């Protein structure tokens, strides 16, 4: 399981960040640091601001207050292309373009690397081939997206993000629609990418999955940071009760030694 000593500096950070949709505040005064070369999992109940925060990190939602920093520079000062060369973002449940094949979709991940009239290069082709291989979608490359199962479609969208070849990946609920086997494959893929110096931030719902695979855990509740740090430090019974209003007992996972959260009751 991943535990990286090299990741000490922060590539992405928020400073006093506040986010809202219209007049409805979602995130308030958030100071968050994303460690370089590590897998950070954002956890919290529905409506806690996890996906909203991820959208702000990707530059898709302008802050109401505060700022998002990339290598110490506000992302508001970067062009869309400059940001796309550094940060890849997987939406939650992206729409399916009708008639588009998996291979055509994955090739769209190369757009930030190409000029307006640039020819398709061997480097572009190699990046797409690797993305298809890593996500197990090579045999699906000529299939139209609408013919795929939910899990197959999700892996195709992940391949687009990988073809973009950014050093930072933001994944919004990437295990959605995936069965257990493919969830494990995806988490192991993320670990392999981190070992190749990628920085990954993912919104997850499964506490034990996050504990097993992530290096860094961030707990959010009602748009505020409740705890952040290593899984063993953050995923404690008091923290989980505070954030999720669920009593748990936390033991060592007999396979990995990471925290294993066992729900008890909401009445305790």
From TrEMBL:
Its main location: membrane. It is a peripheral membrane protein. GO terms for biological process: iron ion transport. GO terms for cellular component: plasma membrane. SUPFAM superfamilies: P-loop containing nucleoside triphosphate hydrolases. Coiled coil: none annotated. This is Putative siderophore transport system ATP-binding protein YusV. Pfam families: ABC_tran. It is found in: Cell membrane. Residues 12-247 form the ABC transporter domain. InterPro entries: AAA+_ATPase (IPR003593), ABC_transporter-like_ATP-bd (IPR003439), ABC_transporter-like_CS (IPR017871), P-loop_NTPase (IPR027417), Siderophore_ABC-ATPase (IPR051535). GO terms for molecular function: ATP binding; ATP hydrolysis activity. Keywords: ATP-binding, Cell membrane, Ion transport, Iron, Iron transport, Membrane, Nucleotide-binding, Transport. It comes from Starkeya nomas. Belongs to the ABC transporter superfamily.
